[in-house]
Amino acid sequence: MRIGLRGAVNRRLKWAGALWLSGLATIAASAGVSAQKISQTARVDSVFATYDNTRSPGCAVGVFRNGNFVLKRGYGMANLEHGVPLTAKSVFRIGSTSKQFTAAAIVLLAQEHKLSLDDDIRLYLPRMPSYPQSITIRHLLHHTSGVRDYLGLMWLAGRRDDDFYTDEDVVTMLARQRELNFPPGDQFLYSNSGYFLLSQIVKSVSGKTLREYADENIFEPLAMIHTHFHDDHTQIVPNRATGYAPADNGGFQISMTTLGMIGDGGVFTSIEDLRSWDRLFYDTTAVAPPFQRSQEFWSTMLTPGVLNDGDTLDYALGLRHGNYRGVRTISHGGAFVGFRAEMLWFPDERMTIVCLCNLSATNPSQLAQRVADIYLEDRLAPLADSGGMVNDRARDAAPIHIEMSDPEGYTGTYYSEELDVAYVVRLSGDSLLLEVGNDLDGVLLQDAEDVLHRNGIRLRMQRDQRSRVAGFLLDAGRVKNLRFVRQ
């Protein structure tokens, strides 16, 4: 018995030793890869080090290759009041990154032959004005419709960021617009109105809200169980990250919204859920029933818009074609209240980087690019030669202010039928003041003859046959040529 036991022990020792040697060989073989992964993770940690503490909001980041996680991390806090950290499961509002899901709903309806992308939108939205040229669904998708941006219109009508209004208020505002920014198809000008109207078309065609249609046909089939279009600000959302903005005292303040408009934005989702969407992008087999024609689906989603003059845009359907350091990209960012988002595909590398943040001061587009610098450093061109994506907004040259020769001639009350609002221009001492009721209130300056400006808006004064000021045309970013008449 003793000899038998000793033999068994020796055999086990030899077996264990063999396993140990085999393990050493495996470790040695993979040491380079493991060290590389550790080094890459540490470098990503350094990118987000500013937010990686219990006193700051921050970001969740996911890196996918072929639809599988390469990295998923959270940096900072989802909720400062309750000490909840950010993770890959945290649910963020993703702003305009939502637009690809609105476009997806429209494409699925087109594949069901319930609409055509070249249909006139008035077939489904009869309250919209009849303009000289028809606006098609395709125009809305590519931001070439000329429809004025509703967020800009509401701001110009005196609404503040924390004011409440409804879908019906937005539809009524858009129905009052007698002019477009430009004839449909002539130009590209990003407009949230287009994607809001697409949500209304989904409802008209399917009999379901965009939220309901997307749940049934996109999110549930893809098992995106923590994703939805958020059309009810009173809804409790598990794992929700709170949105924050920097406070004047150096800390943070909550930055959320009660608005329920969806289509142009409104998706709540997580890093983990977006992996399912990413997997669909790369794997067109074994998908849920609505995506059985997924090659056709993605071909439509990625088709760029074309202007009337034949110029091809970089904007497709809720997605933008681009190039970062010599490598092809597809992407879309988002920014609303205290949330910022970026989803950045490198399709030729089969790699995707998603950065979701709950602090308005972050720039997830730049952060995602810095992560790409780490994981694709052997594929990217040198920074100096890249011709890569530019994320900084173009800045207009500072206007040259001139002294007004007759400021009193500009004073009066001016009414816009399209906004249903009156602007008051009055003198206070030597200053010409604009009164609207929000952050437009303040001093008007002049930078050209009969051109006044204040906080992002330009008033081009119009004179009658007697050279008296009779009104003005207002330009403000995504809103052009709004007509005001002097009362």
Structural account:
The termini are far apart. The chain is an alpha+beta fold and 487 residues long. Strands 14-15-16-17-18-19-20-21 form an 8-stranded antiparallel beta barrel. It has a 6-stranded antiparallel β-sheet with strand order 2-1-13-12-11-10, sandwiched between helices. It has a 3-stranded antiparallel β-sheet with strand order 5-9-6. The chain contains 10 helices and 21 strands.
Short structural summary:
This protein is of the alpha+beta class and about 475 residues long. It has helices at about 1-45, 100-110, 135-140, 150-155, 165-175, 190-205, 210-220, 270-280, 295-300, 365-375; strands at about 60-65, 70-75, 75-80, 85, 90-95, 230, 245, 250-255, 265-270, 320-325, 325-335, 340-345, 350-355, 410-415, 420-430, 430-435, 440-450, 450-455, 455-465, 470-475, 480-485.
Name the shape in a single word: globular
| Nearest-integer average pLDDT | 90
**Total DSSP helices:** 10
Question: What's the assembly state of these chains?
Answer: single chain
Low-confidence stretches: 1-31, 386-397
Q: Strand count, sense and closure of the main sheet?
A: 8 strands, antiparallel, barrel
How does the helix and strand content classify structurally? alpha+beta
Helix share, percent: 25-40%
**Share of β-strand residues:** 15-25%
Rounded Rg: 27 Å
Q: Termini distance?
A: 113 Å
Q: Going across the major beta sheet, what is the strand order?
A: 14-15-16-17-18-19-20-21
- Please report the total strand number as a whole number: 21
